[in-house]
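[recover] target loaded
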């Protein structure tokens, strides 16, 4: 997966708002998985994955959300951002890329 930028986190959180609350954790993990696969395809072929894009989380989070971006203080939006951050940490932990100091409680 390509380096994560704030736009990636925002796009992923907005995509999570489009699905039911009980499906969001799994959807976040799936988006990250798709971004990893798409990045491998991009590196191997020099072209983006046909469905999941160029290996960025933003591309994997598409299609674009249908509702406008909520205000930053919206509790549901903040919860979605938190879910994305937790899923990214879990992904990094799985691949041995998170120092012990960053472990979640």
């Amino acid at each position: 997966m390509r380096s994560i930028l704030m736009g990636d986190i925002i796009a992923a959180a907005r995509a999570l708002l489009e699905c039911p609350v009980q499906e969001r954790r799994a959807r976040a993990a799936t988006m990250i998985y798709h971004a990893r696969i798409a990045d491998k395809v991009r590196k191997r072929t020099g072209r983006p994955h046909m469905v999941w894009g160029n290996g960025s989380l933003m591309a994997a989070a598409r299609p674009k959300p249908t509702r406008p971006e909520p205000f930053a203080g919206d509790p549901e939006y903040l919860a979605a951002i938190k879910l994305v951050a937790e899923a990214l940490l879990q992904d990094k932990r799985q691949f041995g890329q998170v120092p012990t100091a960053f472990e979640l409680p």
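[recover] notes: The chain has four helices and no strands.
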